[in-house]
Amino acid sequence: MTSLQKLKAIPLPGKLLILQFIWVIPYIFLTNYLERSLLPFRLLCYTQSDFLAVNEPLRKNLDSCIYHYFPNRLSDPKCSLNASIGSINDPTLPRGFEKVVVVRSAPGSVDYRNYIRSTWKPTLPADVPVVFVTGASLKYDLASEANEYGDILTLDFIDSYKNLTLKMMATYGYFLKYESMKQVVVINDDTIVNATALIIDSESTSNHPSYMIGKVSRGYPRLFFPWLLWHVPGSMYKHKCYPPFVQGSSFIISRAAMTSLLNHICQFPFVHLDDVLMGIMTNCLNIRLIHREGFDRHVLDVFSVFHYQYSRYTADEMTVLWGKIRHLL
């Protein structure tokens, strides 16, 4: 009897069971070590229905929702994430702009900024500025670069990974001062942007005024391996799984969503993983998460924002990748 005949002989419930788990074998061989290691925990999280629902808050009351996620913690009474942060360098912005592309950049990453300036930045419409946002640095002075290009926003705090949430909140506060601004596109500097696809994504929103558009991830477990960069201890976040969140490498956020996050962030206990904290907040604040396949794409096929999350390509490597696909965009 051939393999096909054997498969046909299996009762329907058995076939459904096989089909349900047949993806596991290629998943194990094709994904990276971290994803393979997390597979059992991912499967566990997919059984936690409370942490899978998108756009359905666990608790409608804000205080009850916060307590559900953080039953063992209170918010920091000294929280300053919603404070007004001054700027050291300001970008030159077009009058009446409605969208802005914010590129998160480290002060010393001039090679990535130059890569973007020479590749995909010029493909965006003139009324959609690209702004590199950095914090301050004791080592790098960006004044001359900012004056030359007019595309750098330097915020008045020390730039570091632990200050990523502060960087985002301060960025929102800065652009909310412009009444014409309706959307901010946030991306990492090791990305390739398909300008046409990105503009289409920015216009395909729901009627809900408060939203984030990007790659919506579900079923992510809390990483309890202390040697990992994304480790979160149980004392910080009690649950085994995170609620749905938009991957932080690239997303679009509306003015109403930025306002809501900025107004309420100090009511939430702090989690140092920015996209996870935003996932918790968007759930409790009724901010709509809109999934789009083109974000955080790992391969150069059909994408809005290409980003390889498991390793960081150099600026030269990004330039080579751009050269391979620029004629297709």
Automatic annotation (TrEMBL):
A Pfam entry, by short name: Galactosyl_T
Biological process terms in GO annotation: protein O-linked glycosylation
Bilayer topology term: Single-pass type II membrane protein
GO cellular component: Golgi membrane
Keyword terms: Glycosyltransferase, Golgi apparatus, Membrane, Signal-anchor, Transferase, Transmembrane, Transmembrane helix
Single GO MF annotation: hexosyltransferase activity
Superkingdom of source: Eukaryota
PANTHER family associated with the record: BETA-1,3-GALACTOSYLTRANSFERASE 4, BETA-1,3-N-ACETYLGLUCOSAMINYLTRANSFERASE
Protein family (similarity comment): Belongs to the glycosyltransferase 31 family.
Name assigned to this protein: Hexosyltransferase
Species of the source: Panagrellus redivivus (Microworm)
